[in-house]
Amino acid sequence: MEVDCEGCAGCCVDWRSLAESPSDHERRGPRRPLDDTYNLVPLRRGEVRAFLDAGYGDALTPRLWLDDGGVEIDGRELAGVGGKPVFFVGLRKVPKPVAPFDADSQWLPACVFLDPETLQCRIHDDDLYPEQCSSYPGHNLALDQETECERVEAAFGGERLLDDEPEDADGLLLGPQAIGEKLFVHPEPDRLDGVVDRLATGEPTAKDRAEFVGVAAASSPGATGIDERRYKAARERALDADSWVSAAVTEWTERSDAEAQVADGADPQRTVRGESTTPEPSVAERVEGDRGAPETPGWD
Question: For residue range 25-46, what is the model confidence (pLDDT) as tens digits?
Fold first, then answer.
């Protein structure tokens, strides 16, 4: 398996607004994501714990699914097991100034760890780098499913998937294997009143996210129950997390919201923190780098 990632980041960026025919591959079939985040990467239980240990609990967010006849919370029927909703935990996405596929720079939702300038992952060479990312698109190839590389090729041309021979499928968890390892069961649906609404509108609070992170970290392989003591400790660690990610997310959101007002003509001279809101990738050095974000190597 060989891919050409330079200038792409199709896995890490929501590029649907750039395409003439945006992909809806995540919203086919009976179970559809509750949120509208594109290509949210599922983390394994051990990875959730590792991000907490590294102080990155603020970089994590949950995903639930709509499922007719499922568990009803906030007026929505959700996929579940035994009357309890299931979810996975992934890495947050936030609007960033990026220019993938040789396009002009613009505000697009991107993974919190994506460097807007190099379009490389800031934790690529770190032990935190998710297995799902490091093996991509191997699992898709092993299951004979379309890859993001191929979707990018279809939308923008060029060659991204250079060798489609899949590597071993280690880490490919399906069905019951995934429970407690990559797919988690929330034990108390009543605690999610109001939370589901906020997740559906893309406005979860830090407390909402920490609730699911705590459950995931306290889960066990093959089990739907959790270790209550570990849950409470993990939830608190997620709530207390205050890495560079939090401040960067806040500023990126301020900047993209302000640029949207400029585009609408509501505030043609809007600035944020004394700077223009024009989407310029190089500003990431200040927004993320100066706050402690790991550097990326760039391309040879």
Answer: 777 667 899 999 999 999 999 9
Q: 30 and 38 in contact (C-beta within 8 Å)? A: no
Can you tell me whether residue 96 is helix, strand or coil? strand
For residue 280, give the DSSP letter: -
How distant, in Å, are the alpha carbons of 90, 93, 156, 292, 294 from that of 51?
11, 16, 34, 16, 15
Q: Which residues contact 72 (CB under 8 A, 6 or more apart)?
A: 78
Task: Tell me how many degrees the CA angle 104-19-9 measures, rounded to the nearest 5.
Answer: 65
In b/e form, how buried is each residue of 233-258, taking b as 16+ CB within 10 angstroms? ebbebbbebebbbbbbbebbeebbeb
Burial of residue 265 (number of CB atoms within 10 Å: 0-12, 13-18, 19+): exposed
In sequence order, what E strands does 74-199 have?
76-78, 80-81, 84-91, 93-98, 106-111, 114-115, 120-121, 161-163, 184-185
Element counts in the chain: helices (H) and strands (E): 9, 15
User: Model confidence over 37-70: pLDDT tens digits?
Assistant: 999 999 999 999 999 999 999 999 999 999 999 9
Q: Which H or E element spans position 198?
A: helix 195-200
3-state secondary structure of 66: strand
**34 neighbors 208 (Cβ within 8 angstroms):** no
